From TrEMBL:
This is Guanylate-binding protein/Atlastin C-terminal domain-containing protein. Pfam families: GBP_C. Gene3D superfamilies: Guanylate-binding protein, C-terminal domain. It comes from Cirrhinus mrigala (Mrigala). InterPro entries: Guanylate-bd/ATL_C, Guanylate-bd_C_sf. SUPFAM superfamilies: Interferon-induced guanylate-binding protein 1 (GBP1), C-terminal domain. Residues 12-120 form the Guanylate-binding protein/Atlastin C-terminal domain.
């Protein structure tokens, strides 16, 4: 921003920098909000299934991971030009990692029980 025609400490330059920083901040906030709206819309069906216990079954973890991957692909195609796209997706995935771990534990327990039941039915 500094050039030979703008000496350091120039009031016009400082005001221009402040305006620019303000616009950058507004753009980032708008981008974050838009990305959150996109993710909320895309993840709504998965969240509904999660609340209904849809993934609490043998194979539920793989299904959850597939749905999560589908959301990521759709999100990346819809939010690709957003400044905060990657940051918002990373935060979303951190939140979902808790759900993912819980689903994995339930899936493992149910799969073991299912295998025991199958083993008993063959006897």
């Amino acid at each position: 921003m500094r050039g030979p025609q703008c000496p350091p400490g120039n009031a016009v330059q400082e005001q221009t920098v402040k305006l620019f920083d303000g616009y950058v901040c507004q753009n980032e906030q708008a981008s974050k909000k838009q990305c959150e709206i996109i993710l909320s819309s895309l993840s709504a069906p998965m969240m509904k299934k999660l609340k209904q216990g849809f993934y609490a079954k043998p194979g539920g973890y793989d299904l959850f991971c597939k749905h999560l991957e589908d959301i990521k692909k759709k999100y990346n195609s819809q939010a690709k030009k957003q400044v905060k796209a990657e940051e918002v997706l990373d935060e979303f995935l951190k939140q979902k990692s808790v759900d993912s771990e819980a689903i994995l534990q339930v899936d493992k327990k149910l799969t073991v029980k299912e295998q025991k039941i199958r083993g008993e039915s063959f006897k």
